[in-house]
Design a protein that fits this description.
alpha/beta; protease; 2 domains; Rossmann fold; hydrolase
Length: about 475
């Protein structure tokens, strides 16, 4: 993760989720026999990620894939990752487990978590598929915008139209009145084959309002609500398929597309499939993690800052990295992309500023906190608040770290508007330093049963619940 504050450094050998610490160098073993084998093409066709040495040209990658009974969908030579399709169930065997993996095939053979959890918004906290009209009283409230002082920031800066924010999600309704001026069709694409598709249908949502809701938090500008940075542009990059799945090849395509289009910030309110939390011992996890890490690193090198949701499992992500000792078998798990070192990872707080009960956390994992809301009052004594934003056909309240991350992406957009030449590392540093520090709660007993629901560790300046603190839009524009 990004460099820790001095307070965090005191407890730190803890930043175990940095991708470079998890993934050993991959051994690039070629298929045992590059001659065309006798292919079995009567099985189910699945997509595969295939790793090559970076710089491998298209013709060489395609030849090797064809020799293993596959067809190349796209090759990304700049990172040495290709996406292929094969109906031969021996395809990954010929490449070896350190080079080829099909998340699609793995999903077909194992149970996975629910799409709403992977997307980082609570199914139980949503109001349902039908948006309700926004009444004037609620319209004037905007509690989450006020919590990050976005209402005050708007008096100084709404964000520049030169700034482009990539919303990697389920697509954006570009026809929504509050988003019509923000969505840039020329910078939008769908990634559901692993290769970018620029047709409007490819990046327009079908059965999910999630991406439109996230987009509104960043840059809506209408009668119903105002986003954190209503003056910036949005690129709709669809990485969520009809089943609500986010396969690693979708994300790889999304990061490469963002780099190519000159995106300044990406919002990533999801956890990549097929595992809820990616454990490197799982078959194929090393390939998927390495492919996503390379793609994210390429985007970062191209000047793209990534912001990601920590997830809604209410777990200490650091505790999932148990190093093996004598007589034990440790495991290294991380959410992708939130666990990667180049990412600004965001936890969610309720309207009173307390960590939302569902939000995951972790010292050295979480960088910042932002409003995600909580349907129930944190003290369990009445209703809480969720975050209102755009959905196709209207507005809706949703809670989750999915809603927290775009608040940070919006503030990052305001920062880029002020500092267009700042690097991702510089932006990460400024975001941390402009945050309002939040101390660990004296008691975090949301059920009032006498037992803490989670343990917060660290100092006020940096801790496991809130990272460096609550993101602050006003400080961003003043800086």
């Amino acid at each position: 993760m990004p460099l820790l504050s001095p307070a965090a450094a005191a407890v730190a050998g803890v930043a175990l989720l940095a991708a470079g610490q998890l993934a050993a160098p991959l051994k690039m073993t070629p298929p045992a026999d590059l001659r065309q084998p006798s292919c079995h093409d009567d099985g189910e066709a699945y997509r595969y990620l295939v790793l090559f040495e970076p710089g491998t040209p298209d013709d060489a990658a395609e030849a090797e894939i064809e020799a293993a009974c596959g067809t190349t969908t796209v090759n990304y030579p700049e990172i040495g990752v290709a996406v292929a399709v094969s109906a031969d169930d021996r395809f990954d065997t010929w490449f070896g487990p350190d080079r080829a993996f099909s998340a699609q095939r793995a999903t077909a053979t194992r149970a996975t978590s629910t799409p709403s959890t992977r997307l980082g918004s609570q199914a139980a906290e949503q109001l349902g598929p039908d948006a309700r009209p926004l009444d004037p009283e609620v319209r004037a409230e905007g509690w989450s915008l006020r919590q990050v002082r976005g209402d005050l920031a708007h008096r100084l800066d709404l964000g520049s139209a030169d700034v482009l924010i990539g919303v990697l999600d389920s697509g954006i309704d570009g026809g929504h009145p509050a988003l019509a001026d923000a969505v840039d069709p020329g910078a939008s694409a769908g990634c559901l084959s692993g290769a970018p598709d620029v047709s409007t249908a490819a990046w327009t949502p079908t059965n999910s309002a999630h991406g439109t809701h996230v987009a509104g938090i960043i840059s809506s500008n209408g009668a119903g609500m105002t986003g954190v940075a209503p003056g910036v542009r949005l690129a709709a990059v669809r990485v969520v398929d009809e089943a609500g799945l986010i396969y690693p090849e979708y994300a790889v395509c999304g990061y490469l597309w963002a780099a190519e289009q000159g995106v300044d910030v990406t919002n990533n309110s999801y956890i990549i499939d097929p595992w809820h939390l990616d454990c490197e011992q799982e078959p194929g996890a090393q390939v998927a993690t390495e492919a996503v890490r390379r793609a994210m690193g390429h985007a970062t090198d191209a000047g793209v800052l990534a912001v990601a949701a920590a997830g809604n499992d209410a777990v200490d992500l650091l505790a999932l990295t148990d190093r093996p000792s004598a007589g034990s078998s440790g495991r290294d798990c991380l959410p992708l992309p939130a666990g990667l070192s180049d990412v600004v990872t965001v936890s969610a707080v309720a309207a009173d500023g307390t960590k939302a009960r569902y939000s995951s956390y972790g010292l050295g994992v979480v960088d910042l906190a932002a409003p995600g809301g909580d349907r129930r009052h944190p003290a369990g004594i009445g209703p809480g608040r969720c975050v209102r934003s755009t959905v196709p056909g209207g507005y809706e309240d949703r809670c989750g770290t999915s809603m927290a991350a775009p608040h940070v992406a919006g503030v990052a957009a305001l920062l880029v508007s002020q500092r267009p030449d700042a690097s991702p590392a510089e932006l990460r540093s400024v975001l941390r330093h402009q945050a309002n520090p939040l101390s660990c709660p004296e008691e975090y007993d949301l059920n009032l049963d006498g037992t803490p629901d989670a343990d917060c560790v660290g100092a006020k300046s940096y801790n496991s619940f809130y990272g460096a603190g609550l993101v602050d839009a006003l400080r961003a524009v003043r800086n």
